[in-house]
Design brief:
Helix 2 packs across helix 3 and helix 3 packs parallel to helix 8. This protein has an 8-stranded mixed sheet with strand order 4-1-5-6-7-8-11-12, sandwiched between helices. The protein is α/β, with parallel strands linked by helices. Helix 7 links the parallel strand 15 and strand 16.
Length: 325
């Protein structure tokens, strides 16, 4: 059987780092150890290797995410690649995966993976996750499923997956939904299908979007600051089903009066934010004021989506419609 042409993009992260045996500190190496190891995986696929940058994932910004989008589209136009695997640090992996999911219109599989243990630690999981990801990117069943995240023998959607533990190798989970497939020694198996197919055409990531977490006793001080600092949008991780302390209402009004979209998610990791409660600061009042309720995204992904929305349209109604998908 003819091997698939797979683009492997290394971006850095723990998967490419080494542990200092004397101190236990994990840090980037001058040369990415995965680059040479990837060349040894030619039995799995016809591999093209790119390394556009070598960064820990806290250093990744939407600018780097946009570069990855352009790199993938360039190779698809030039080389007719049949799949993509991206190695990435785990701290912001879900945000990069979701950004690419929303901004690349591709039928071929795009898989993002990483590692919780550096390349020279006992039990290092990076190479295994990379092999699993190449297998997923090479299988026809992975087509038309959007961007996938593969670690620890599980296949997750970019929309639902999140990092749930600071150090455990099974950190990536999809609360409420679970993985959509598994990787075994015998093959790649999907048992669920994604229901949403979203794509937004953008040519920049220049907008500024803030992310806040609501708390007991919260007031409008930071909301006024966001307005005065000329942010273009804000996402708030609200209480419960989508409620805020009453002292925030004047700040919410100030943002909306300045045409700054306010998107609400829940700070709970299960369930979705809805306009249920009608007391002062409750979801119904917030909805009536013009706050946008997100359909089940966590805060960091809602921020990515709002960033993309602001780059693709100036119409707040269209942005609201994005969050109802």
């Amino acid at each position: 059987m003819q091997k698939k042409k797979i683009l492997v993009i290394h971006t850095g992260g723990t998967i490419s780092m080494s542990e200092d045996a004397s101190t236990g500190a994990v840090k980037p190496t001058e040369i990415n150890p995965l680059t040479e190891k990837t060349k040894e995986l030619l039995s799995l696929a016809e591999i093209i290797i790119e390394e556009p940058f070598h960064l820990p994932s806290p250093h990744i910004t939407p600018i780097e995410m946009f570069k990855l989008k352009e790199l993938i589209e360039h190779h698809f136009d030039k080389e007719e690649i049949e799949g993509v695997v991206i190695t990435h640090g785990t701290d912001t992996l879900e945000e990069t995966a979701y950004f690419l999911h929303l901004t690349i219109q591709a039928t071929f599989p795009i898989v993002v993976t990483g590692a919780m243990r550096s390349s020279n630690e006992i039990g290092a999981d990076g190479l295994y996750n990379l092999i699993s990801s190449i297998r997923v990117a090479s299988c026809k069943e992975a087509k038309n499923k959007g961007v996938l995240v593969v670690l620890n023998d599980e296949i997750h959607t970019a929309e639902n997956v999140t990092k749930t533990h600071t150090s455990n190798v099974s950190t990536f989970q999809s609360p409420q939904y679970g993985p959509i497939g598994i990787v075994t020694k015998r093959g790649v198996f999907f048992h669920h299908l994604p229901t949403n197919d979203e794509y937004y055409k953008i040519d920049n990531v220049s907008k500024r979007v803030a992310l806040m977490k609501a708390h007991a006793g919260m007031d409008s001080t930071l909301l006024y600051a966001i307005r005065d600092l000329n942010y273009h949008g804000v996402v708030i991780e609200a209480l419960g089903q989508g409620n805020l302390p009453p002292a925030t209402i004047e700040g919410i009004k100030a943002l909306i009066e300045k045409n700054i979209p306010v998107v609400l998610v829940s700070r709970c990791f299960n369930g979705i934010a809805q306009d249920v409660y009608s007391y002062d600061g409750g979801g119904k009042q917030l909805k009536d004021l013009g706050v946008i309720f997100s359909n089940g995204l966590n805060g960091q992904k809602a921020r990515i989506k709002l960033l993309i929305g602001l780059a693709s349209t100036t119409n707040n109604k269209e942005i609201e419609d994005m969050f109802n998908v």
